[in-house]
Structures are given as structure tokens and as C-alpha cells.
Design brief:
single chain, 7-stranded mixed sheet
């Protein structure tokens, strides 16, 4: 009989019942074992189509020469039988369970006066077994607890009633040291011993709360009988139980008995994590690895894992928490797919565990077999990015400039997914003028690959362009000119949403945010950005003189050198009068230099408001001589003089809205907020649609803490001009202060859509991300801000705060140092730098920073707390106590200061004072204080 005829006969003979089927080849070798709800339909599905989704399935079907089956009552029985047969026979095409360890159990022996011990051998002799325990350490901690609570025998004597009556045994050392109560000589009754065993079983099962409740009742009973020694022993045991219970991961007491499962998988492997929850605490956790062989779905793999793990850990929980519900039900248990709350938290915890397990496996694999690890990543990248070959050699390009000045580009190289820093290259843009990223990218790509072709160097497998469709199109032009179109893989990556763009495709590809492919693409992109910024910064530093002096018409290198020799810096030159500069270069050149620098400085003075923007909105109003002279005085920072000229201008023409606005701005800079608001009211009266006046008014009101009025004025400014950057950024800052972080980020996003080069929007969006704990996005925003403009001290102050939050204290210190160089009047920077130095154990420097902070903010309890902590590190305990006393006096609810003062008292040997401080901190709700009281003070807590 031909093979096809035989198979057809076998298929016709299959029943419609649930069961397990087995496929054999021509040599009667078992190939595959499967389960089915309907044997006829399931087995037939292998043979009723010519092409399968998976090549391995096609190969399997070709090899099948015989089919056997076993009928069972239910689909669950089929699953359990399948699982058992797979473990026994391990067929080639079945999922391979990579978990061949033997795990320990806790055994309560089936005997008179049962022993409690650990074992790796499961013997069916009526003994009670608990486990298995994936962590031997956890099991031994539990056994130690049991033996501390209840003295049990550890000998293997046959303590039958007859043997004890005949006095065959003598008490041993264990009895004398209190580890056993001597049941061998009938010194402990069987009834008492078995009662202890019942309690032990509850503890091992995780039912600790019921045991504690029973023991408390017994303790009170002894107390009422005035048997205080026995009551004290019970109290000590309760303490041991509470201590053990506190070390369990407590989720919620409402979740009494549940199994939690989560799964992650790739093409070849799946990992399933299991957490066992009893009385709101996780008492067991385990992860298994499943090697895929055919086209198993996540649902099939999760079902198989649930059956295996519930059987292995002998679980009969009635609730199974899963990311999705499989079709198969397990004996009365109900599936829960939580969306929020404690159960969702449990599922996320399980997902973190399985994710960590997977990463650790991959890390070990990369250490043992790095080439195999690399090959796997390359294969995954090739598939994810739809490439024709593995991207072994990747080159990435990024541009860097500030408004077209010092344009540079950088190329970074990754080989086998790792940086090849010796092959990184810098490019100085030669043919492009002004801020043109597209033309710059076109030039760099052309120069790079022309050189590659001329030198017969290897072409990359993939080119990554930092940017969206525009930059990618520019790069493609150069490749087309060099005849490389289609010969090299090329993609663009846009920063905002990490979109991947392909040539000729307007729709982007979105990769999984957690995928290795996106991580490597982001890493090489960030490297290019870092490498380019470093080169750009060095070039800019070298060319600062050229930008601000030698590029002024009529000013030569010699003239610039004379000025710098006289005044030391460009900053000093800007502050000098016309007469002082004329003494060096003559009145004509002095006038040219001051006029040029005045334009630059005035743009900087108004952090968000620029003259060009103001004039663009008030172009119908003439700028008279007095207003012009006021602008000149502003450039010299002579704000009082400037106000005089603006006053003359408004007196001569009360309709001069510009002059009212500029006068208000100068008064704001001098701290005359009330007068500034009056001037702005006049500007608005003259020109009711003056958007910039409303935004400046909102800024001043915000500075005074009147956020409600400020928001109203900023909303008005934006209703008049939706592209008013100052209003957008200032409104975002206010909303962030009001804890409306999402709305703040929306405002910054709109500002960046209008002007992507607005450094202030990047800085304050970064701060918003930091305040909501999204430190990764904050650092990305800071990088962009630095890329655009690194002259704002807030940039380094806020980035230092983010680095402090992620405990990168060295980087935080560097940024705080830069912030102090730019502005040495901000007490908050000194305070934060002090906290950083304390973490770096530079207590002397921390004290100095606190002193500087207190010179301008003398009533800040936070500063006194830090200075007291730093002085304690220097062993100046008296000074530390004085500072911490001051902090508590200024803020009586400052629980952290109480704890720090307690630490100083302990260091001085004043335990009474320390414990008093801890009690004060505990009364303020500080959980750490409560733990310290229990540990050091021996004080009875209410």
C-alpha cells in the first residue's frame, strides 16, 4: 500500500473525540506528539494543504508514515497526557522544555513524630511534600524559621509507642541545647507535637496570617493565666513570623490564592514566568524556557507552561492571572486578564521577571558563544529592517550646527552590532552656507562614499541617516550620483517617535520600543550625535573670536587681538562705552563694533522675546530716535538709561507700543514688576492685539506667583498669535509648576513644531519629563538643547537634577559646576551640588556649597539639613546638631532631618536622643523611622 493511501485510511479512522496523536516516520521513530479537542479535524489539518507557514511543518508532514492516537475524556486530560508523553519521549519536533534541574522539596515525613527536612527525591510513601523550590536559599530560610519556632526531632529512630515504652532511646545533645523536646523518652506528647506540625504546614503553605492569629490568641491566654514566661516565648515566635512575612513580596491581602503567568517569545524560544501568591504575598517564583520546533502560537505555549508548572508546584489555585486567556480551562480555575490595580501590578512584576531572565540568558550566551549571539542579533536586524543581508557593517551620519555657524557632520561605525570607534570620522561642511541640513547631508554622503569607491574600501551593509524623509532623500541623491542606488541598504530615523523611513516609502516603520534592533539603531544614532556635538563644540570654541569680532565688517584679526589684549574677553567689550573702545580702535570702528554687538546682546537679553519678532508684529509703528537710543543703552546693560529714553519716546508719542513694551521689559529686569505691568497695560491699551505684550505680562505675573492671571494673559497672547513662542514656553513652564506635566509637554511640543531650534522649549520639556520620572526622554531632550545652544545655565542645572535622580552623581556634579560658572547667584544649584557631593563623600565641598546657598537663601530648611549631614560626615557632630536643629525649627514636619539628627546622636553615643528623634520621625509617617526603631531602640510601638 502506498504511503498516501495508508495515511488517508488512518485519517478516515480517526474519531471526533479529544485525545493525543503521535506521528511516526518510516523507521517507526516518534516525530511529534500533539493534543486535540477533535482528533479528526486537528490531525487532518496537517494534510489538507500543500504549503505550511513554517518550513519545519512541511518537512514533518513529508516524513509521517504512521499515526497513532489515544482517546481521553476532556481537552484538559489531553493536555496533561501530552505533557507527560513529551517529557518521557522528547520527540524531535515538539517544544523542548529547557529545564532539566531537580529542585528541592520540604518533606514532612509520614511517621510518628514526623521529621521536617529538605530532599530532592520525591517518594510516594504518604509523606507530605511542599515545593519544589526554585531557590534553595528561600527553602532553607523557611526551614530555619520552622526549627526556630518549633523544636523538632532530627533523628531517624522509629519512635513507636512500644519502643518508647520500652525506653529504647535516650535523649541526646539536641534536647539539652533546646532543639528538641525529647519525644524519644516521652517528654513531649504526640498530641502537642502534631499540633506543631499542623502549624508548620500552614506556615510552609504561606498561611502565616492564620498562624499569627492563633499564636496571639494563645499568648493572651497565657497572659490571663499570669504565665508570662510562656507568653513571652510566644511573642518572640510571633516576631520571627512577622519578620519572615515582611521579607515576602506583599501585593494585596485581597488576593488570597492565585497563580500568575507571563510569556515573552521570539522566533525560536519562549520564556514563561510563574509566581505563586498566597494571602497577598508571593511565596514562589520560577521561569522556564521553551524551545519552539514548529509554528506554536503564544497561546499554545502558555497553555503548555501552565499545565507543566501547576503540576510541578502542585498548585490548585482557583484564579490564574495571565496576559491573555487561553481557550483551555483548568479544573474549575478562572482566568483573569487584569487591566489595572493590584492584579495588573502582579502581572507586570511577572513580566519584569521573565524579561530579566531572558536578558540574562542572552548575556550568558554572548559570553559562552559570542559569534552565535552576534549571528542571532544580525539575523533579527535583517528581518526587522527588511534587509537583503545581515547588517554586519553599519555607518551612521548626523549634522551639527547652530543657526548655520560651524557646520559639521559625524560618521559613526558599528561592526557586528558594536562600536568601532577607530573608524569614526568627522566632516567639516565645505560647500553649504547657512543652516541647511539637507544640503549638508548630501555633501557628506557624497564625500564619504566617493572616497570609499576610490579607495576600494568595503561598502557598508546599512547606512543610517539621523533625520526623517528630507535628510534621507538628500542622502539618496548622493548615492544616485555615485551609482550606488540599490547596492547599499539605507534608512532614516526620526527622533520624535523613532520612526524608520525607507527610500520611496512615505509611511514610516515603527519598531517595538523594546527590540534589540531599535536599541542598536538608537545607540549608533546617539553615538553619531555625541561625536558630532563634541567636534562642533571644539570648533565653536576655537572660532568664538572670529564669529563675534572678525566677522564684523572692517574689523581685522589685528583689531580683534588689540581689543582682547585690552579688555580680555568679548563679554567685557560688550560692557564698555563708545569712548573706551574708541581709545583702542578709533571712533569709527568703535561705532561699528558696538552696533553689531548691540544687536547680538539685545537678542540674548530677552530670553524668549527678540527685536525682530516685536518689529514683525508692530511694523506699522515707527521706531523713533529715542527708542533707538534706548535699544543701544540696553546693549550696554544700562537699563536705567534705556528707561529714560523709552520714557521720552512714550511722552512724545503715547501710541508707541514698542517703547512701552521695551520700557516694561527693562523694568522687569530691574525688579520693578509693578511699574512694568503698568507699562504693559499702556502697550495693550494702545494696541489691543499686541500678543507680545500679553505674553510679557503673563511672564511677570508668573514671576510674582500669580499663575491664574498669568495663564489668562498667556492664553490671550496665543489667541492673538498662535505662534508666540514666548507665550507657549512660559505657559508650559507654569503648567509644569502646577503639576500639569502632560499639558506642559503639549505646549512645548507645539513650540517645537513651530521652531524646532527653540532651545528653551527643549530645556523645559526635558525638565517636565524629569518631573514625571521619564529620565530617558529628559536626557534625549537635554542632548537636543545642547546641540542647539549650550549657553543657558538652566540647561545644566536641570540636566544635573536628572542625572542625580538616576544616581549618575559624577555627571551631575560636572553639570552643576557648569551651571555655577554661568550663574553663581542661584542657591538651588548650590543646594543640589551639595547633595551630590554628599553622595560622592565630598563633605567639605558640600559644606562650602551650603554656605553659599545660605548667603542668598538663609531660611531654607533643606540647606541646613544637607549642611548638617555633611558636617556629620566630617565628624563635626556639634555643628551638625546645630544645623539639623535649625532645619527642624524652620520646618517642624521635616521627618528626614529628624532621622539625620538621630544618626548624629547615635554617632555621639546618645541613644536616648537618637530614639527620641526616630519616634518624632515615625509620628510624621516616615516608614524608615519605624524600621529603625524596631532595629535599634527596643521601644514598644503602638
Amino acid at each position: 500500500m502506498e504511503k498516501s493511501e495508508k495515511i488517508q485510511e488512518l485519517l478516515n479512522s480517526l474519531p471526533d473525540n479529544p485525545g493525543v496523536y503521535q506521528f511516526y516516520d518510516a523507521q517507526a521513530l516518534l516525530l511529534y506528539i500533539g493534543k486535540a479537542k477533535n482528533l479528526k479535524k486537528r490531525v487532518g489539518s496537517y494534510f489538507n494543504r500543500d504549503v505550511h507557514d513554517n518550513n519545519k511543518t512541511s518537512v514533518l508532514v513529508k516524513k509521517i508514515c504512521d499515526i497513532k492516537f489515544i482517546i481521553v475524556d476532556t481537552e484538559l486530560d489531553a493536555l496533561l497526557l501530552e505533557n507527560s508523553l513529551i517529557k518521557n519521549h522528547q520527540p524531535r519536533y515538539n517544544v523542548l522544555l529547557k529545564d532539566d534541574k531537580t529542585y528541592p522539596w520540604i518533606c514532612i515525613k509520614n511517621e510518628r513524630f514526623p521529621r521536617v527536612f529538605s530532599t530532592r527525591t520525591f517518594v510516594k510513601d504518604g509523606s507530605a511534600y511542599f515545593g519544589p523550590y526554585a531557590s534553595g536559599r528561600t527553602m532553607h530560610i523557611l526551614l530555619d524559621l520552622v526549627h526556630k519556632l518549633y523544636p523538632l526531632r532530627n533523628c531517624n529512630f522509629n519512635l513507636s509507642a512500644e519502643n518508647i515504652e520500652k525506653k529504647k532511646f535516650k535523649i541526646c545533645l539536641e534536647y539539652h541545647i533546646g532543639n528538641c523536646k525529647g519525644p524519644c523518652e516521652n517528654l513531649q506528647s504526640e498530641e502537642e507535637y502534631n499540633a506543631n506540625i499542623a502549624l508548620i504546614k500552614n506556615i510552609i503553605k504561606g498561611n502565616i496570617s492564620s498562624v499569627i492569629k492563633e499564636m496571639k490568641s494563645l499568648m493572651l491566654s497565657y497572659s490571663e493565666k499570669t504565665e508570662f514566661e510562656k507568653a513571652q516565648l510566644i511573642k518572640e515566635k510571633i516576631g520571627l513570623l512577622l519578620n519572615y512575612q515582611s521579607k515576602s513580596t506583599v501585593v494585596s491581602p485581597d488576593i488570597e490564592n492565585a497563580d500568575v503567568f507571563s510569556i515573552v517569545s521570539d522566533e525560536k524560544t519562549a520564556y514563561v514566568n510563574y509566581l505563586r501568591v498566597i494571602n497577598g504575598a508571593i511565596i514562589q517564583g520560577h521561569t522556564i524556557e521553551l524551545k519552539k520546533k514548529l509554528e506554536e502560537t503564544p497561546e499554545e505555549l502558555l497553555t503548555l507552561a501552565i499545565a507543566e508548572l501547576r503540576s510541578r508546584f502542585d498548585s490548585n489555585a482557583k484564579e490564574i492571572i495571565v496576559p491573555f486567556a487561553p481557550e483551555l480551562q483548568f479544573g474549575g480555575a478562572q482566568y483573569t486578564v487584569p487591566q489595572r490595580g493590584d492584579k495588573r501590578h502582579l502581572l507586570e512584576l511577572s513580566e519584569k521577571n521573565v524579561g530579566y531572565y531572558r536578558k540574562e540568558k542572552e548575556r550568558q550566551q554572548s559570553l559562552v558563544d559570542p559569534e552565535r549571539h552576534t549571528r542571532r542579533i544580525m539575523q533579527q536586524m535583517m528581518k526587522d529592517l527588511r534587509l537583503k543581508s545581515e547588517p554586519r557593517l553599519i555607518e551612521c551620519f548626523d549634522n551639527s550646527n547652530i543657526q548655520g555657524s560651524y557646520p559639521v557632520a559625524a560618521m559613526t561605525v558599528f561592526i557586528d552590532g558594536k562600536p568601532a570607534k577607530k573608524q569614526y570620522r568627522h566632516f567639516n561642511i565645505k560647500t553649504v552656507e547657512g543652516p541647511d541640513d539637507f544640503a549638508s547631508m548630501e555633501e557628506v554622503i557624497y564625500r564619504r562614499y566617493k572616497r570609499v569607491l576610490e579607495g576600494n574600501l568595503p561598502l557598508p551593509d546599512l547606512i543610517v541617516i539621523d533625520g526623517g524623509k528630507g535628510q534621507l532623500s538628500s542622502a539618496l541623491k548622493s548615492l544616485e550620483n555615485l551609482g550606488l542606488t540599490g547596492k547599499v541598504g539605507i534608512i532614516g530615523i526620526a527622533k520624535k517617535l523613532e520612526e524608520i523611513y525607507y527610500p520611496g516609502d512615505s509611511l514610516p516603520l515603527y519598531l517595538d520600543k523594546k527590540s534589540e534592533t531599535l536599541r542598536i539603531i538608537q545607540q549608533i544614532r546617539d553615538e553619531a550625535h555625541r561625536f558630532g556635538i563634541t567636534h562642533h563644540r571644539k570648533k565653536r570654541e576655537k572660532g568664538t573670536i572670529k564669529t563675534e569680532l572678525t566677522e564684523i565688517p572692517g574689523v581685522s584679526d589685528l583689531t580683534a587681538r588689540k581689543l582682547l589684549e585690552k579688555f580680555k574677553s568679548v563679554k567685557q567689550i560688550k560692557s564698555k562705552t563708545l569712548e573706551e573702545i574708541s581709545e583702542v580702535v578709533g571712533p569709527s570702528k568703535a561705532q561699528q563694533i558696538l552696533s553689531h554687538l548691540a544687536r547680538l546682546l539685545f537678542s540674548f537679553l530677552f530670553f524668549f522675546l527678540t527685536i525682530s519678532k516685536a518689529l514683525a508684529q508692530t511694523d506699522s509703528l515707527a521706531i523713533d530716535a529715542n527708542t533707538t537710543e534706548g535699544i543701544h543703552q540696553d546693549s550696554l546693560k544700562n537699563y536705567k538709561e534705556a528707561i529714560k529714553y523709552y520714557s521720552k519716546a512714550t511722552k512724545a508719542n503715547t501710541e508707541n507700543a514698542n517703547a512701552w513694551l521695551y520700557k516694561a521689559t527693562d523694568r522687569y529686569l530691574l525688579g520693578q514688576n509693578k511699574s512694568a505691568l503698568e507699562d504693559l497695560a499702556m502697550a495693550i491699551k494702545v494696541k489691543p492685539d499686541f500678543s507680545l505684550a500679553f505674553s510679557k505680562k503673563g511672564l511677570i505675573e508668573a514671576a510674582g506667583g500669580d499663575f491664574k492671571s498669568a495663564l489668562a494673559d498667556l492664553d490671550k497672547a496665543l489667541s492673538l498669535n498662535g505662534e508666540n513662542l514666548e507665550a507657549l514656553v512660559q505657559r508650559g513652564i507654569i503648567k509644569n509648576k502646577m503639576k500639569k506635566h502632560k499639558e506642559a509637554i503639549d505646549d512645548f511640543n507645539v513650540a517645537l513644531d513651530i521652531k524646532p531650534s527653540c532651545a528653551e522649549a527643549w530645556i523645559y520639556r526635558a525638565k517636565s519629563h524629569n518631573d514625571i520620572g521619564d529620565y530617558q526622554m529628559a536626557m534625549i531632550d537635554f542632548s537636543k538643547a545642547i546641540h542647539l545652544d549650550s549657553t543657558h545655565y538652566e540647561l545644566f542645572k536641570f540636566r544635573g537634577n536628572t542625572e542625580f535622580q538616576i544616581q549618575d552623581f559624577k555627571s551631575a556634579l560636572e553639570d552643576y559646576n557648569k551651571a555655577v560658572e554661568m550663574n553663581d547667584k542661584d542657591p538651588e544649584v548650590y543646594t543640589n551640588r551639595a547633595a551630590t557631593r554628599i553622595n560622592l563623600r565630598d563633605n567639605k565641598g558640600a559644606v562650602e556649597d551650603c554656605n553659599k546657598a545660605l548667603s542668598t537663601d538663609a531660611n531654607n530648611p533643606k540647606i541646613y539639613n544637607f549642611r548638617g549631614t555633611a558636617k556629620s560626615g566630617l565628624k563635626d557632630y556639634r555643628g551638625a546638631i546645630e544645623d539639623l536643629d535649625k532645619a527642624i525649627k524652620l520646618k517642624p514636619s521635616f521627618s528626614a532631618a529628624y532621622i539625620n539628627r538621630a544618626a548624629v546622636h547615635f554617632a555621639m553615643g546618645d541613644k536616648k536622643g537618637a530614639c527620641a528623634d526616630l519616634v518624632s520621625a515615625d509620628s510624621l509617617g516616615n516608614d524608615l523611622a519605624n524600621d529603625l526603631i524596631d532595629k535599634y531602640c527596643n521601644i514598644k510601638q503602638k
